[in-house]
């Protein structure tokens, strides 16, 4: 991994200072920023964490990660189409912990079914995260999945910008006099366009109640979001396609500014002409991923959107598929076989790290064995069912954390234990607004973006089912396992309306730091230098 | 002036809040920002002042301002080509006040002549500023020139962005449901490309000493500049044309990082390969406009650049043409006739407000009369020979200011007195980082950008001249006055290598505020809504 421009050892102080200043100015002029808390009534922003150089990454594995995306799109769309299976996987949480994300979302889902789900089509915008895995220096490197995200996935716009920035720096001679040897190693990143294309195709697919009236995409966002620079560029890219967008806060603001007509069309009421509403084609969720957002207004808002005729990105079932317990179940051959052919199952298993639940199942017993073994546990991470960085428990801290949970009466059934990925040694220079400058060993995470639009084939079954019925269907579910027929494949293919890899993100952190979240200041946006 | 979207009277608080938030996010994501002073080691930026709506402006006068630009380009290039005349106009200052900008620049110019000026070609990037003039509500509005700037002109990038922003807001329905009636009234603004085109053509015109070696444009900038967002986009637009740029601070950094070879080629030494220098084609001055910058290092830097083979944007003579005394002299028919045909002279005079020097000349006597007359003086502004807003003295404060200067032994010969332009009533909503929100009566200033590249015909004469000789040539100058021959026209036309209108800026301030500087927080960037 010695080629490429990431050679901080040869960097003079002066060169570093010049590069930093060039990078900061580029970030200020291209919106590679985070908003700061307003200060004496004024708005400020500061550069988001970035690497000064692209980080080395094997071309072969980069390309295979991109290629994998359509298979993962297919898998998670099939999962989101299978409420029965999802319920089965999440039943413990749904039944035992009504404050859990799984229970809250499931409850909204069943309420939506009672009201009648009017829109069979869903859009998923996914991000599958990978690290390089090389347990010993002599091992061949392989690609391992860190997690799969189906809801409100972020980082696409920032990564798009930083790929552009590194290409700009290389092209203008900021790294070395002659940029030509660097160019072929810096892959183009058009994730903003990729996401906008997926939303735009979905917008076109929507069949409006008022075909001649105005229509628009609704961005559902968090209040006081510091990360508008990851969302706004997608809105602007849709505007460039002559698609209007409205940006409304999750919860009360959605309820105040939108209404449902008799045919469940979701209507947005512009502030200057509330009597002249705009029909919403697509609800693009960029909020509602924290359990804290689901107060009474949050639940009402999510249900209101879910029962509307607008196409949701994604539907609640699509959201449920993002929970860690689901991902853990999808590292098991028997579950994968429910959704995919043998070849795809093997392809997926090859990038999965071993994952275990903390319940009383056979795998649950294995996880308890690992936790008891002081050596084995060091090689694992405990992941809660929460979004964003900062919540994971690593290695030696796991046993104590679990003891504490048990004291508090928590069974830990919403946790999964995953074997740690062992990334190879790569060096870079990072500039983080929180951690300052750093030059040394780093770890990168490649996120591959995918889009999938599908027509639900489960709607009929779901619509006549309540909790009790789902429960009863469990026996049927067991019979179905592994029962993967050609007819089902055909039916599924016909109902997949879009399946694309639409871009990538690339994030890098100091090797000594455990978490990757850039918004929280742990990681930095980066781009791959393909070797 | 009632049509157009700028109708703050009809704006609800909610609409205003939504628009402000949309505007701020757009500014953060498009670099419409000013850098703040670093705070605890971190860099921050905040949105530059902008208007929420475009401001009404008569289409006829907008178009005639654009059309005028080529005539002004020609005039100021001819002035910069005429060191003898410039010396004559600035002689009092040059002789009497060695600390004045005129004296400092003239001194560097004569030193450059002694060393030998090797580059006969100059580039001017100009901005001619206008306001609407309507002394009484029944008067027909006319266009009046506020000032003409030939050195380090700013605002092109910001204005380009804000025109884009207002078009974006109109197009996405932020003002009203149907944007189609607004579109034809929002003229396209491509000033960034216009400036980059001018620099790029000049770069191509430059004949390098090492024709196969690398070459680049040098941006000479101020240290700790908060306004990088006005400069960097020009650099990026040149990069898009495969032209490299280097950004170096005026003064010591220029001396440390550039050298002259035996043929006076200006060489830039990149930080990672100082032994492998890049030949500079064009020196683009965005610093050196304040007299305080001319300490020993500043003077050495300016001379070093001036004697180099690189094409300067602009040369020192081009810089001297920006001084207020020159502009005042160019409101006189007899001076204009030295440089232009009768028709152009009349065209220029029609946009000039009366201006007077404060010396012992005939016009100087007129200015003293005005200052003594309590009524007349209210209608005037006193302009010092300084760049940027904040230095002008208005109306009733003029007599006291002049008394104070006389007490301090200052003759006031570097001041000019100008009749105030009387702009019509226009309304808008402004959002300024310093003054906060404002809705009410505003005044706008249209700046038209021009580029002119010329080959000096005076170089021969200049090169054998020193101060004394210029002085002696005065009699010759008097004979030349008004002596405008067809041969001279032809010679001049052949030596004009480029003459273009390249864009515009548009700034708006509260009517009650005297100064327009946006960087200092007085004014806001805006765009015209043509009516």
From TrEMBL, chains A, B:
UniProt cofactor note: Binds 1 Mg(2+) ion per subunit.
Cofactor: Mg(2+)
Residue span, Glutathione synthase substrate-binding domain: 216-321
Alphabetized UniProt keyword annotations: ATP-binding, Glutathione biosynthesis, Ligase, Magnesium, Metal-binding, Nucleotide-binding
GO molecular function, one term: glutathione binding
Pathway(s): Sulfur metabolism; glutathione biosynthesis; glutathione from L-cysteine and L-glutamate: step 2/2
Domain of life from the UniProt record: Eukaryota
Annotated substrate binding sites: 127
Region: Disordered, residue numbers: 457-494
Binding residues annotated for Mg(2+), in chain numbering: 147, 149, 387
Basic and acidic residues biased stretches: 479-494
Record's catalysed reaction(s): gamma-L-glutamyl-L-cysteine + glycine + ATP = glutathione + ADP + phosphate + H(+)
Claim: rRNA processing is one of the keywords in the record: no
EC code: 6.3.2.3
Top EC class, one word: ligase
GO cellular component: cytosol
Pfam families cross-referenced by the UniProt entry: GSH_synth_ATP, GSH_synthase
Regions crossing the membrane: none
PANTHER family listed in its UniProt record: GLUTATHIONE SYNTHETASE
Protein name: Glutathione synthetase
